[in-house]
Write a structure and sequence with these properties.
The chain is 51% helix and 14% strand. It is of the alpha+beta class. Helix 3 packs across helix 6 and helix 6 packs across helix 8. This is DUF2293 domain-containing protein.
């Protein structure tokens, strides 16, 4: 059984041609010594694509497949590669789908319980974050502190409140969440971005106004 997956790159704009057979442009490719190869030339043309989204199906298909690969695409905003799905053997996918249909009810009940647990955790965390904001910034209006906490703590948002430091209620992370709110709500920062001012330059312009609000809220 294969231990480590082959990585398949899914370019945003397919342009490359296979270095071996010259077919292209390639929708998916393997990079070997920086040279693109099509899936057929890489010995992966028989695999079928399974998009991400169903963790149980993905896990079972991967475990049942003698050969599999991970499909990734570059995210320009996050400047990193994001997983899009996997390639597995067709028979393995069929077995995985049958297994998932057999225990669909039990998995649905487990997901419901997990969702309730996460919702309760999120309520507790948002309340703790709001309390921390009000301790660090006692001059911050109560409704604004609640708004900042709710915005920064959205699960899966990638905002500072969901980072490890944010979940630990680290002072720097909490201050960063408050600073971001002030920047967007109390300065012309968004208008500057809309008018074409580069992000870093816009932040420099509004920094004095942001710090003035934070100083007032700290008192």
């Amino acid at each position: 059984m294969q231990r480590d997956p082959v990585v398949i790159v899914e370019p945003l704009r397919p342009r490359a041609r296979c270095a071996q057979c010259r077919r292209g442009p390639l929708r998916r490719m393997v990079l070997e010594l920086s040279a693109p190869r099509c899936l057929d030339c890489a010995g992966l043309g028989h695999l079928v694509y399974l998009p991400r989204g169903d963790a149980a199906l993905t896990r079972r298909a991967r475990e049942a497949s003698g050969r599999w690969a991970v499909v990734v695409r570059h995210d320009r905003r996050r400047t990193r590669y994001e997983r899009q799905g996997i390639l597995v053997e067709e028979a393995a996918l069929a077995r995985a789908e049958a297994a998932c249909r057999a225990d669909a009810g039990a998995r649905a009940r487990r997901r419901a319980r997990d969702a309730e647990r996460r919702a309760a955790e999120d309520v507790r965390f948002t309340a703790a974050l709001e309390a921390r904001i009000r301790r660090l910034f006692p001059g911050c209006p109560a409704d604004r502190a609640a708004e900042i906490a709710a915005h920064a703590s959205v699960r899966g948002s990638g905002r500072v409140g969901r980072t490890a430091a944010g979940r630990a209620l680290d002072e720097g992370a909490v201050a960063a969440a408050v600073r971001a709110s002030v920047r967007h709500r109390d300065t012309p920062y968004d208008a500057l971005l809309t008018s074409g001012v580069p992000r870093r330059q816009a932040r420099v312009r509004v920094a004095p106004a942001v710090e003035a609000v934070l100083a007032a809220w700290r008192r």
